[in-house]
Design goal:
By secondary structure, this protein is α+β, with helices and mostly antiparallel strands. Helices cover about 20% and strands about 35% of the residues. The chain contains 4 helices and 15 strands. Strand 5 and strand 6 form a beta hairpin. The protein is extended, with a radius of gyration of 24 Å.
């Protein structure tokens, strides 16, 4: 029996992508073959695929068996035409051109992925029957150690842009001890406003100045940003305290 421990493992997040290239053919095979004319990829590269096949759409795959205009998706079996209809896998791919390591990971855990079922019964049945349906959403939680000696906690705050893709704004959060944090939550317990953002952050990475007027404009355009900022601040402070 062999035992392997994950000691020394690292976690990286994709931070740079090449331009999208069209997928003109996607085959039904034990290992799917994609045609991308003059792709320029190498075996072992990772690509983000957008595909008409829902099971493969917006997922990352390692490629192999490349030729000038084709490559395989390593370990991806698309031979079942009921799941992967013939001719339906066209789309585009983007090569991941840069990775950034997530350092100081304290805990790495996953949740979800449980099989879901649908209950049904016929009029003549004494007992209901059950068939498998989908699986629950899978999520990954990564707990990272913070360095409280830094001038501020930085957190990426995502606010969904109406009609567009999610946008990321980086805020520089103020540091607070336990008593100061308790006073902060008491002060703003009735309602979160522009003053709440000014009280928890001291800057951002936008070109516009970090002023009351610009914060108000941000919240008017993206109301959900208020909750993302304040929730992100509270999570950052309390997680940092728990990790130290």
């Amino acid at each position: 029996m062999a035992v392997k421990l994950p000691n020394g493992a690292t976690v990286h997040i994709a931070t740079n992508y090449e331009a999208a290239k069209p997928v003109t053919v996607a085959t039904n095979a034990v290992e799917a073959v994609l045609t991308v004319t003059g792709h320029g990829f190498n075996d072992g590269d990772f690509v983000l695929l957008e595909s008409g096949w829902g099971k493969l759409n917006e997922r990352v795959f390692r490629i192999g068996g490349k030729t000038n205009d084709t490559f395989k998706l390593v370990g991806v079996d698309t031979s079942d035409v009921d799941v992967y209809p013939a001719g339906g896998g066209k789309g585009s791919v983007r090569k991941i051109a840069g990775w950034t390591q997530i350092p100081q990971i304290i805990e790495f855990s996953t949740s979800g992925g449980e099989q879901q079922f649908v209950d049904f019964g016929f009029l003549e049945d004494d007992y209901e029957q059950q068939i498998p349906s989908s699986q629950s959403a899978l999520s990954i939680t990564v707990k990272i150690a913070d360095d409280p000696s830094l001038p501020g906690y930085k957190a990426a705050v995502k606010a969904s842009v109406p009609g567009g893709e999610p946008a990321a704004v980086e805020f520089v959060f103020k540091q607070r001890g336990r008593k100061a944090m308790a006073a902060f939550t008491e002060k703003h317990k009735k309602a979160w406003t522009v003053d709440t953002v000014l009280d928890c952050a001291e800057g951002w990475d936008l070109a516009e100045s970090f002023t009351r007027k610009n914060i108000k404009l941000l919240l008017e355009n993206y109301p959900q940003a208020l909750f993302a900022v304040v929730d992100g601040y509270i999570d950052e402070v309390f997680n940092a305290r728990q990790g130290n």
